[in-house]
Specification:
It is a single chain. With 254 residues, the protein is mostly helical. It folds into 2 domains: 142 residues, Ribonuclease iii, N-terminal Endonuclease Domain, Chain A; 70 residues, Double Stranded RNA Binding Domain (2-Layer Sandwich). The protein is built from 10 helices and 3 strands. Strands 1-2-3 form a 3-stranded antiparallel β-sheet. Strand 2 and strand 3 form a beta hairpin. Helix 4 runs antiparallel to helix 5, helix 6 packs across helix 7 and helix 9 crosses helix 10. The protein is flat, with a radius of gyration of 23 Å. It holds the Pfam family dsrm.
């Protein structure tokens, strides 16, 4: 009972020392990570955008994103190394890539609602990778605030659980990369040819053709060259996979 009274008084005093905005941010982060944070300044910085004014110096998420990227990479590498004791280096690298690739981090950041915690407005178009960038900046803030062991526990128990990691095991992140690896093993030449096209509505699109040796096996259009290549590679993969098994399980290899 006495402990409850103390905690109640402590929380009231803590709320008074924080602005309403900071208190809300602290509360939301605590809900996500399952424990209290210490330094609100780190999380304010983790969710601050870069100022467009060249005269205004401001702390923003980019430095913490840089740090969080390395910390997350270390946590995931150690987890995979311990979880798959017989996996080869190639398999471990592929698994890590599936986990920390931009698309997956964007998904995680969006599901956690991290863009909702932004501390300042931006008059520029926000990056399509903002949610993933904020996920990494949150990891950076957690590492500095709560130290590595606590940060690692939060990541693996609440943010990127082993069960979620296992779901990615058979997920294909890049069909283009998969086809390249397959063609190199088979000693076959695979190349991409991309041209610009103007559609009937006058929109510019990119059409990519996938060539295996001297045969065009698929093509696709998209709004960017990179997206067109990946979509065409995906179509080529399904065509080739019907004829022969492209995917092998590298963790079984010595």
């Amino acid at each position: 009972m006495e402990l409850q009274k103390y905690l109640s008084k402590f929380l009231v005093r803590r709320k008074k020392t924080l602005s309403e905005k900071d208190y809300h941010l602290s509360n939301e982060i605590t809900k996500i990570i399952g424990c209290s944070i210490q330094n609100i300044n780190l999380y304010r910085e983790a969710f601050s955008l870069k100022s467009s004014s060249k005269f205004k110096q401001n702390n923003n998420y980019e430095r913490l994103e840089f740090l969080g990227d390395s910390v997350l990479g270390t946590i995931i590498s150690c987890h995979l190394f311990a979880t798959y004791p017989h996996a080869n280096e190639g398999y471990l690298t592929q698994m890590k890539s599936k986990i920390v690739n931009r698309k997956n981090l964007n998904k995680l950041g969006t599901e956690l609602g991290l863009p909702n915690f932004l501390q300042n407005d931006s008059h520029t178009t926000l990056s399509e990778n903002l949610a993933g960038n904020l996920f990494e900046s949150l990891i950076g803030a957690l590492y500095l605030d709560l130290e590595y062991d606590t940060c690692r526990r939060i990541v693996l128990e609440r943010l990127l659980t082993p069960s979620e990691i296992n779901k990615l095991e058979n997920k294909i992140v890049s069909y283009k990369g998969l086809l390249l690896e397959w063609s190199q093993k088979k000693k076959l030449s695979i190349r991409y040819e991309t041209v610009e096209e103007i559609q009937a509505n006058r929109n510019l699109v990119f059409r990519t053709y996938v060539w295996l040796e001297n045969e065009s096996i698929s093509n696709a259009t998209e709004t960017s060259k990179k997206k067109a290549e990946e979509k065409a590679a995906q179509r080529a993969f399904y065509i080739l996979n019907k004829k022969q098994c492209i995917i092998e399980n590298p963790k079984d290899h010595p």
